[in-house]
Amino acid sequence: MRRFIPALAFIVCIIVLWELVVWGFSIPEYLLPAPSVVFSRLFSIKAVLLTHTAYTAFESALGFITGSALGILLAVLFVHSRTLELGIYPYAIALKTAPIVAIAPLLIVWFGNGLLPKVIVAAIISFFPVVVNTTKGLRNVDPEAFDLFDSMSATQSQIFFKLRVPSALPYLFSALRISSTLAVIGAIVGEFAGSDRGLGFFIMISSHRLETVDMFVGILFSSLLGILFFYGIALLEKIVVPWGKHIAADTA
């Protein structure tokens, strides 16, 4: 709990400064609403916000699970086949570099404005960090441990499940923390492209109506959802990989 104190102190200072600047310079509400106005509006429409947040969370979770599962599967294939990696990896990079804001409208055209396009967008944007880090983790095996397994005539499956997988778990969870927040971004981008619910839809409608306060409320809830996903994965990591150390995710 102590490690959260600096972050909480910083955000409190920002909120106080923001409030003072708005009231001190008499900034119009449609340009920059004061935090007190934003929080007041938040509580007055909390039922609607929770409905939109729940829908976005569902899209994000499905996309995150799908993208992560595909990333793990591809990483396993890459470790077992260098030829397969050389053949597929360039296309994974191409998918990573393709602008997601351009892909989302295309998916809406193909699949409509229902749940599926948002899940696909969230899966695409969360896929790459998982495949990169998991591949690195599966290959980052202690040579001495590998020699020990080899001297004991361990089978390939034993080496994989008892040596490679434990070695890869810290790398995997490092990527999952990043991908979980990216999945939220992907779902919201998909909602911008076409939806009738969700936080992205709420923010977009608010912007069309020039309801700046509601836009800030939507942005706040989007950030809180991403934080919830991030620390949820971090908590799961402590349970599953108590021996692991945090490893910076390679998202390049």
UniProtKB/TrEMBL annotation:
For this protein, the record's InterPro entries field holds: MetI-like (IPR000515), MetI-like_sf (IPR035906)
What keyword terms does UniProt attach to this protein? Cell membrane, Membrane, Transmembrane, Transmembrane helix, Transport
Which Gene Ontology BP terms does the record give?
A: transmembrane transport
Q: Where in the cell is it found?
A: Cell membrane
The transmembrane residues are 7-25, 61-80, 86-108, 115-132, 171-194, 215-236
Chief place where the protein resides: membrane
Topology of this chain in the membrane = Multi-pass membrane protein
Residue intervals of the ABC transmembrane type-1 domain: 53-237
Which Gene Ontology cellular-component terms appear in the entry? plasma membrane
SUPFAM superfamilies in UniProt: MetI-like (SSF161098)
Q: In its keyword annotation, does this UniProt entry include Endoplasmic reticulum?
A: no
Which PANTHER family has this protein been placed in?
A: ABC TRANSPORTER PERMEASE PROTEIN HI_0355-RELATED, ALKANE SULFONATE ABC TRANSPORTER-RELATED, MEMBRANE SUBUNIT
Q: Which family does it belong to?
A: Belongs to the binding-protein-dependent transport system permease family.
Q: What is this protein called?
A: NitT/TauT family transport system permease protein
Question: Which organism is the protein's source?
Answer: Candidatus Kentrum eta
